Structures are given as C-alpha cells and as structure tokens.
Structure to design on (947 residues):
C-alpha cells in the first residue's frame, strides 16, 4: 500500500490509494491516488495487471485524471450556510452545523405534519452515485419517518426505460460487449460512447469489434468522436426524425423481401395483419403502417423519409440492405434520440427492425431498445423502504410544486389516484437538476424562487452551483476522494469497485451518513436509522450481503485492498437467448409472451396520435416540420461533452482548456449569419438567451446547432445566460407516455452577440 | 547512440478525448496554457443540399496527439544557447536541464511541433521528458498508460517502424525532414497527405 519513491535526493513516503469515481458517469474506473503528506500529488489508473484484450485495465479518462483541480478548487464550499436575501440570489451566511440541522429538523417535522408525505421530495441527483451516498441515507431516513414523494425514470433514459418494456417486457435487452466481436455490422444510432462514457472501455470493445471485421456505421447529426475514430460510414440525420429513417428501412426490407418472416411469425405480435391480437380492426399492424395500408395512407418510402430526415433515399436503401443482409448485426441506439418530444417511438421502431432482421437472442445480434445488460451482478444496497407509494415522473416535479394537490395520472402520477399536496420541502443532495440540468432554466428558477410554493429547500453540495444558489440551508459535502464507498458501473462491465478514502475531509465538510445520522437523532430516529452501526460497519455489511449471493466474493479486507472485484463469466450474455432457442418454455415477459410490436396496453390508452400501438414517426413540435422554423430556423441539441460529467467539472480550468464551452454551428449556417469561428454569439428562442463562443465547423450538419450540455446556468442582470446552459433554451413539455424530458427538441436562432 | 526511444500514435482510432493531455498535465503539474502533450482537431469539408437531402461532401475530421518527438535532429538542442537542452545518448530522450535554462525561449522558436512550453512562474521552459522517472521504474509514460482506446505506445524507433511502418508525418504536422521526429503513426484515413 505504501511505497517509498525518490524525489531528487530525498526519500519521501508516497501512499497509493485505490479508489474510483462516484459522479454520474457511465464509466467506473480504477483510480490510483498518489498521496504525500496528506495531499494528492498525482493521479494514475489501474496498472498492477497487464492490459490485455481479454481483461483490459479499467482506465480512467480525462475527467478523473483532472480530479486534483476539482478537489483542491478554491471555490469548494467550506461551512454550512443559511440563505440571506431572496431565494436564488445566492447570498449566504455561515452558520454552525447544529443550527443547520436544527433548522432542517424543524421544517421537516412541520411540513410532514402540515402537508403529509406528498409535500416532501428528494430531488433527482447523482453527483454522488455511491452505495452510501447522501441520497441513499436520506431515502432511508425519510422512509423511516413516514415516507415521501418519490419519482420514477431518470433524465437520461426516461423514454426508453418506459417504452422498451411495452415491447419486450423488460429493459434488460443488451448483450455483453464482448459479443460485438461476432457482429458483421454495427449501427450506432445517436450513440457516441467515445464522448458520453457508456461503460469503461466501451470504445475499446468497439475498436476490437472493428478489428474482427465488423462494419461500423454511425447515424448522428454530429460527426462524433466515435464516428471519426471507428466508423466506416457516417450518416447525418435531423434530430427527432430517427423513427422516419427506421420506418423507411422497414419499407425497403418488406418490399425487397429482405426481412425474416419466419422469425416474425414465431416470436412477434403485430408485425402483420395475420398476427394481431383479437378485436383490433384491420390496418393497424406495423406492416400496414409502413406500406401505407393504414389510416394515414402514406407508404413510408425512402423518398418520404428523405424529406423528413435529410438522408438521401439511396443512402436509406443501402443502409436497410446492409443491416438486413449482413447478419448478425447490431443496431444499437444511444439515449440521445429518445430524449425528444416523442422519444418513445424511436425505441420501439428500433426493436421492430431488430425483430425483422432476426437479430434478437442471437450471438452478434442486438435486441435494440434500452440495451441495459441482460446479465446483472448482485451488489447489496443499504436497506431503505418508502412506505408512501405515490410517484411522479422524474421530469414532472415543477408540476408537483405548482399544482401537485389533485394531480393524477394525466400528469404522470403513479401509485396513487392523486397527490394530496404540492411539494413543499425539497432535499437536493449532490445534484444540479433544480436548474441547469432540468428544462427551461428561466421558468424553473421563477418557480423555485417563490417561497410560497416550495417552503424549504436543503442542498448538499461541493460548490455554489446554480441549483445550490436556491438553497435555504446549504451544506458542504465531502468529496469522493475524502470518503469510503462502493460503486458499480451503470451496467457495462462485470465488476464492482471499492473507493478507499484518500485524504482527510477539509474544513467543515461532512459525510452524508454523519450529518444525516445527526438529523435522525433530532427526529427521534437515530437508533432505528443507524442500527448502531458506524459507516465502516455499514460498508462491511454491504460486502457481507454481497458475498452471500456471490460465492467467492472477497472479504472486506481483501476487497478494500484490491479496490476491485471482477466477475469472470465464461460466455458473454445474449439477451433473450432462452426465449429464441426454446420459446415453448420461455415466453417473453409481455402480456402475450411475444415481442409486442403491437401493444394492446398502448392501444388501450386511446391516444393513437401521440401514443400509437405500433411504433410510428410522430412529427415533433419544434422539429424540422414545425412552422415555427420560419422564426427559429435551427434545430438545437445539447450533446454530451468529454470535459464534463453532466454539470460536474464545468468549473475546472484544465477542462475548459481541453474543451471550451461553445455552440457548434455548421459553416454554411455560420456564413449565412456572418458568424466567425470563436466569436461570441447569441442563441435564443422564446424561452431564453445564451451568449457563448461559436465553433464554426463541418462536424455538424447544416440546419442543426448544438450547445454541449452541462454548462452552469449563469444569468446576468438582464437574464441572459453568459455561460451557455442548453436548458436555458429547452422546454418543460413532458413526453406523452414516459413524461420524460424532450431535451433535444428546440428551435433557435443564432446571431452575433 | 545505443537506441532511440519513440512514441507510437494510432491516429486512425484516436477519439480526441484528451485523456493523455490531462494525464500529462497532472503528472507534470502544468498550469493552464502549458501543454507538454497537446491534442488538436483537424476538420473541414462541406455539404450539398439536394431538395430536402443534406449530403456531406468531403467532410473530414481527425485528431493529433503530439508531445515532444525526441527528434533525431532536434532543432531545440542545436539552438539552445546554454546547452540546457540535451539529447540523452543512451535513449535519445531530449530533456531540459532546469538549472541551465535561462528562459530565452529560443527552443520554442525553432521547434516545429510546439513542444517546449514557457512557464511564466519559473521563467523557464519545460517539456515532455518521456516520463523518464517512470521509465526508470519500469513503467510506461503516463500518456501511453492513460489512453482509454490504446492508441498510444512507445518503444525504440527501430522496433516501432518494423511493427507499424515508417510514417512520421500526416496532414496537420510539419515536414518531418526538418527534425526527423522519433514518431511512428498509423494514420487516420482523412489525414494521409496526398
């Protein structure tokens, strides 16, 4: 653990501590922290095992490698504070922890008594995603205290999380990455894992698949870093139109008889009129919709799709043939295409194509849909149970603040007929989704600033983020380098990591378990909450519970020493392999036991235009066909950026040097507007204005602009956001089925600032 | 010279993530403005509009990840007035003796790769020294061991050339005949000079 190295002539003790990252990153890497005299002097990554294709090192990327700049940032919050002045102005006064916790306890008791559990909300936020993060403890405490209003879904995958089970009955539709070596063609639809880290080493697995012979095609409005480094072909597409492309590919396959009719007959419901549930009128199968034998009388031809997507029809035909004839093949959807006005559709359209090509349940194929890994590895969690069952969609909390009382299923509520109260108390712990990462920053800020609506707002943070500015009580959190924890990847990769505390916590920052235990004491729940355990004893508990279901799992001592445990599986998992190989004994977990290309559950919702029973292209408001384009001619998206994890690292100078916050505009659009590369421009619509530098580039298609997501909302006195938060421009308009965030659905205009 | 150490760059799969750039800054404690390894983007091309269709025409993009190339004929060493810049005989590593450096920045003027970096705090110039302290411990340079896509490597120039060919120049890089960089590149398809 400790080694002696030489710096000049003097021997100095350097301790190497193995830890990981616990921000909401799609990667989980093994980070080695070099500590001298209680200070981190360098950061490296896993290097004690050889780096082999079979067992690649879990290498951290620039985010964790820059971590000293974040940990030792002069703006770290140091003391508990209370708001002075109006909420949201960002003026605070130092207080003691006792005063902070007394105040929080008082308001929590009062609001619970006055409004009940529907008045108390733990806001979405994964700035700390560890097994023993603040939010885990707060969920446990508020559950013990009588419950709270919770949410379903998340800001990343709201639509696919909801829509995929309507077709497959589960979200676990992904094969392990090792299986890509068996694919002949890999189509990445709006997926850029080189930049949005989706699993440590995912890009490396794609590189290996390419070396093994896979042709890689990316479909994306941006010539992404994944496209640059791996793609044989890049096809630019207008945002929100992916379903139109997939429909036209289906048209080509059907009319050229390239589809796998046997597969469809055996495993699917609703592909054609011969395989429909009883009682559904003719013309409602997917085939009828694609061929134009349905109510809209519109064949979904490549020419039809060309006009919508911007993709030339000959390219659509070629793509359909590539995917249909090079089997097995993987059509992998990223999450960007489902973060739009009708994001549910692209998810189900992709699955329809995977089924039409017989790529479900086979090696080298890909079932499409959400793509969460089919094989999970059990890691224990802290017990936390919420006795209150009412839930809202993750995106719908502003409605629950403004008109929560009486709000029901029409506004996303599940688990209760309606809510009994508006949200009155918010705990926002390690998250920036109050403003910045939620939609319509200006509109949301107004709601939050109104003290008659949310009466009390607690934030635990490391910096004065735009969300933290809205705190009534602002608590300084410890940093991930200052705590022990256990973390797992989002799903990509068979391992679990132990985060060893590397350095002492600074100033009056405190660990979540520490202060929430004290809060529990003030609420008369300390004993129940802690069960007499220290944090270390809880971590030992997690290791022991994990070991019970994983024979061979290391002891606590061994796990903390290694910092990592890898599950070794003989074969990559293939989603739905059982259902395909032995369908008699393994129905799909849907009501019909089939892959439901037609869903009776969706049919029964009786909203065929916005929630069709078979996947359809639904033209988006503020999409390419919206007449509003006359005023706001550019579609604006907000792609993920290598230099941040969502909004984390936005204030790190090394990262600004590595990737400036700038709006991407195509050179042709820039020329029309007289914009020069690097100058300040104004991006605006009816919801807001941002001012930031412009990147004039050929890497984004004409007609589309992109503001990399995660920049902190920083309005000036006139309300102009001077940093460039994409959500200053996005709309609070939940999607119809998932009530998800339509982040990439925006029309804007751009001029010189 | 016993051997010449060199970097390998598999440019064709570089994703431009800049992990190497940041790992290098961390290892060398470099303030903003100083980059011992620099990742830069090259891009261009246009689009044809055919009705509603938007067709990319010669759209290209690729990344360069370049540090000091520990050149066979280092212009910096040749022009350094105090002999602070030295080329190590054993392995060809070019390094700067900080005691001798007077911060005149002559090396910066002559290096075609922008490798030497002026440090206004010390009033001296620093640059990549191939992480020779790590090499001495039997470890790889941090840029190499950090690459998430495994596009960076190192070895002797002879070995690397045997394995990957002799290309040491692509679009976006200076003419290799000036200093003969100890660099071997597997080029991106868009970066091949022609």
């Amino acid at each position: 653990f400790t080694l002696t190295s030489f710096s000049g002539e003097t021997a100095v003790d350097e301790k190497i501590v193995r830890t990981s990252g616990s921000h909401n990153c799609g990667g989980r890497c093994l980070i080695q922290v070099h500590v001298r005299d209680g200070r981190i002097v360098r950061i490296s990554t896993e290097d004690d095992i050889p780096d082999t294709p079979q067992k690649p090192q879990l290498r951290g990327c620039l985010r964790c490698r820059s971590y000293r700049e974040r940990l030792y940032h002069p703006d770290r919050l140091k003391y508990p504070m209370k708001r002075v002045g109006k909420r949201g102005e960002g003026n605070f006064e130092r207080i003691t922890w006792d005063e902070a916790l007394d105040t929080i306890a008082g308001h929590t008791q009062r609001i619970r008594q006055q409004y009940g559990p529907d008045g108390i909300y733990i806001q979405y936020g994964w700035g700390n995603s560890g097994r023993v993060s603040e939010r885990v403890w707060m969920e446990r405490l508020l559950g013990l205290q009588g419950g709270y209003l919770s949410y379903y879904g998340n800001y990343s995958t709201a639509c696919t999380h909801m829509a995929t089970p309507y077709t497959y009955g589960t979200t676990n539709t992904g094969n392990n990455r090792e299986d890509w070596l068996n694919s002949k063609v890999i189509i990445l639809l709006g997926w850029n894992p080189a930049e949005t880290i989706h699993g440590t080493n995912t890009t490396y697995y794609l590189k290996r698949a390419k070396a093994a012979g896979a042709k890689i095609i990316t479909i994306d409005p941006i010539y992404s870093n994944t496209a640059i480094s791996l793609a044989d072909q890049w096809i630019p597409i207008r945002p929100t139109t992916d379903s139109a492309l997939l429909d036209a590919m289906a048209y080509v396959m059907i009319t050229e008889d390239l589809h796998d009719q046997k597969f469809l007959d055996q495993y699917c419901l609703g592909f054609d009129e011969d395989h429909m549930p009883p009682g559904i009128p003719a013309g409602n199968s997917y085939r009828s919709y694609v061929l134009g034998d349905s109510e809209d009388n519109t064949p979904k031809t490549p020419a039809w799709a060309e006009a919508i997507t911007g993709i030339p029809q000959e390219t659509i035909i070629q793509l359909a043939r590539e995917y249909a004839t090079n089997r097995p093949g993987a059509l992998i959807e990223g999450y960007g295409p489902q973060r739009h006005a009708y994001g549910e559709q692209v998810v189900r359209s992709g699955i329809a194509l995977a089924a039409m090509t017989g790529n479900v349940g086979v090696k080298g194929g890909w079932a499409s849909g959400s793509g969460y890994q089919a094989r999970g590895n059990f890691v224990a969690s802290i017990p936390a149970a919420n006795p209150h069952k009412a839930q809202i969609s993750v995106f719908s909390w502003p409605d629950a603040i403004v008109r929560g009382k009486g709000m029901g299923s029409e506004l996303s509520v599940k688990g209760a007929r309606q809510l009994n109260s508006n949200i009155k108390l918010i705990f926002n712990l390690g998250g920036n989704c109050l403003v910045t990462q939620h939609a319509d920053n200006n509109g949301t800020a107004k709601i939050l600033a109104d003290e008659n609506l949310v009466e009390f707002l607690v934030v635990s943070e490391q910096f004065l983020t735009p969300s933290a500015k809205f705190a009534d009580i602002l608590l300084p959190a410890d940093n991930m380098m200052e705590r022990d924890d256990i973390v797992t990847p989002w799903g990509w990769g068979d391992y679990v990591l132990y985060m060893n505390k590397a350095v002492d916590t600074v100033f009056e920052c405190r660990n979540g378990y520490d202060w929430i235990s004290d809060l529990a004491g003030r609420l008369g729940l300390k004993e129940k909450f802690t069960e007499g355990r220290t944090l270390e004893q809880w971590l030992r508990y997690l290791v022991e519970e994990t070991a019970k279901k994983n024979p061979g799992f290391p002891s606590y001592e061994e796990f903390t020493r290694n910092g990592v445990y890898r599950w070794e599986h003989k074969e990559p998992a293939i989603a739905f392999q059982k259902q395909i190989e032995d369908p008699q004994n393994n129905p799909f977990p849907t009501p019909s036991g089939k892959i439901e290309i037609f869903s009776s559950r969706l049919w029964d919702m009786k909203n065929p235009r916005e929630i069709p029973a078979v996947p359809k292209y639904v033209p988006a408001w503020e999409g390419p066909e919206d007449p509003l384009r006359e005023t706001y001619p550019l579609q604006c998206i907000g792609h993920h950026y290598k230099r941040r994890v969502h909004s984390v690292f936005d204030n790190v100078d090394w990262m600004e040097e590595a990737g400036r916050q700038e709006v991407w505009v195509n050179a042709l659009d820039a020329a029309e507007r007289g914009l020069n590369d690097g100058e300040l421009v104004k991006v605006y619509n009816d919801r807001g204005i941002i001012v930031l530098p412009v990147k004039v580039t050929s890497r984004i298609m004409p007609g589309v602009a992109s503001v990399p997501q995660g920049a902190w909302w920083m309005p000036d006195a006139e309300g102009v956001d001077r940093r460039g938060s994409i959500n200053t421009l996005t709309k609070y308009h939940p999607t119809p089925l998932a009530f998800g965030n339509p982040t990439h659905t925006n029309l804007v205009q751009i001029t010189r600032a | 010279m016993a051997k010449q150490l060199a970097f390998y760059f598999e440019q064709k799969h570089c994703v431009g993530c800049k992990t190497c750039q940041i790992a290098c800054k961390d290892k060398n404690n470099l303030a903003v403005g100083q980059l011992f390894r620099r990742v830069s983007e090259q891009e261009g091309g246009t689009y044809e509009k055919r009705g509603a269709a938007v067709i990319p025409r010669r759209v290209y993009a690729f990344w360069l990840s370049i540090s000091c190339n520990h050149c066979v004929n280092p212009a910096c060493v040749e022009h350094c007035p105090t002999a602070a810049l030295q080329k190590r005989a054993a392995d060809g590593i070019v390094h700067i003796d900080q005691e001798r450096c007077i911060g005149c920045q002559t090396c910066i003027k002559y290096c075609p790769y922008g490798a030497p970096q002026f440090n206004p705090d010390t009033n001296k110039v620093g640059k990549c020294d191939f992480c020779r302290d790590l090499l001495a411990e039997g470890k790889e340079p941090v840029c190499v061991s950090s690459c998430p896509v495994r596009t960076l490597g190192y070895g002797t120039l002879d070995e690397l050339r045997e394995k990957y060919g002799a290309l040491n120049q692509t679009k976006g890089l200076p003419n290799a005949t000036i200093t003969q960089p100890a660099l071997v590149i597997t080029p991106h398809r868009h970066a091949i000079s022609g």
